[in-house]
Amino acid sequence: MMGYQSPKMIVETQTVRFDSLTLDCGATLAPVDVAYQTYGTLNAARSNAILILHAFSGDAHAAGIDHEGKPGWWDNMIGPGKAFDTDKYFIICSNVLGGCRGTTGPSSINPATGCPYAMGFPVITIGDMVRLQKMLVDWMGIPRLLSVSGGSMGGMQALDWAVRYPECVVSSIPIAATCRHSAQQIAFNEVGRQAIMADPDWNEGNYYGGKPPARGLAVARMIGHITYMSDDSMREKFGRRLRGKDEFGYDFSVDFEVESYLRYRGSQFVNRFDANSYLYITKAMDYFDLTSGHESLTEAFQGVTSRFLILSFTSDWLYPSYQSQEIVKALRAHNVDVAYCELPSNYGHDAFLVDVGEQTELVRGFLASTFERLRP
Amino acid sequence: MTAAAVDIRHRPFVREVLGRSDYAIIGEIVEPSTKVLDLGCGEGELLEWLAQNKFVEGRGVEISVAKVQRAIARGVSVFQGDIDQGLADYPNGAFDYVILSQTLQETRLPLRVLREMLRVGRRAIVAFPNFGHWSVRLNMLWSGKAPKTRLFPHEWYESPNIHFLTVQDFEDLAAKEGLVVERRYFLAGRRRVSLLPNWRAEVAVYLVRR
Q1: Which of A91, B21, B76, B79 could form a disulfide with B71 if both were Cys (CB 3.0 to 4.6 A apart)?
Q2: Among A57, A230, A349, A350, which one carries the catalytic annotation?
Q3: CATH class of B3-131+164-209
């Protein structure tokens, strides 16, 4: 590790407004705001830009410390000397379309009505998110990205980028991702959505200015958290330990540590996430299927030219390794340059966020050799 | 002129690459700016060397997670999987060379591997330890036990080698499969062997095509 303590990078979210974006569903959003952060410096050749793509509940604040003192969601991966080295690369991260952290989403004001869109927001796709990111990158004057990278839903976007804009993507790093949601993944999302919609405070999505569906959203998040962990990591972290008591309460207050943790994470989430965004973004993930319109995944990857580093984790049962291997196989059928590793970890799907030691070395080496090859 | 550019076919000694004489021969065989697949590539040292010295576009297959990690960290594109998996996905003729260095004797179905190598690659480079070396023959004759030599140092129950082959065995198989042997190299340490290779070669390196 580094021999000195680098000064904390204080970061700020910026916003750019685009006139309009036509969506896969046929609707047009106008205008569209995109919230983003950047770290590092774009070089003169504009060849060192990397787009980081956040997962379901992430936002533009990927690295550094914001004004509230909160570190970015991938601060362990992005920064001086880290895997995405801000001394070498120019890093961009934006909040996804449909989000609630500065980019236009269901909680944004619909200019036609002067009220929040709520359920009047059009249904969006991963492809729509990517097309909006492309508008941001074009607006920044970057012709080609050295890499697009993210975990989970961010990995789906990294794949979509490589298929949609092959000429603009030198390399892609999808981590713990899939080319299409499985029945199990759709099922968990549907339970989360139903939890929100079953909360009377949801009120058909019209709760802005009133009481949000906090209970429904918290339950949805609790389910999510279970799927992000593994049997091992939960046993290690909580076991059957009781919370603040030596014996069972024989009631339905909190007995176990794991209950306390889930309740805490659920209630925390309500403060930073919009329930309608939950509905729209999970739907976009469920719709994602790179093979749609193609006979096979192999055919979908026709024309892909990017280099790939694909990573999965042994204990990730939400986005199991077979899904990454399916992508690797299809890319190899085109003899695309793809490196793949299933990293050992007990942390389940969360591994890409928390168990980053080995991931760091792989990403660092992959990016360095990709950047090296760009030079004549 | 670099060491690799000198034709070693006519030199009695091989200058080792990365401490290995078979790598020196592979480095000599591989033409510049070609596409290479290395099966059982370990930590990717050979592919890295070929990329830097021969400007090849390299890919590797390796089963060990730790080795795959070190290979990717050094910028080599490696797929974590076994050799069968590593070959099956590729289209015909995807590579100029498919390399199998000191691993043929460890594969479960060597003939299938060899055929697959020549499907995805135009040429195959196969290096293997020669079980016909005199030290192996004498060791077995005298001890009456599974041979243990410098080349084959493992106890029979710990050995990764599950198919023992000699130089003559490989020649026979190549003939039976109708393969064209474009080049053959025989090594004893760093010394090149030409006379009685099935007795004297410790390691053989073959360049074959269909």
Answers
A1: B76
A2: A349
A3: alpha beta
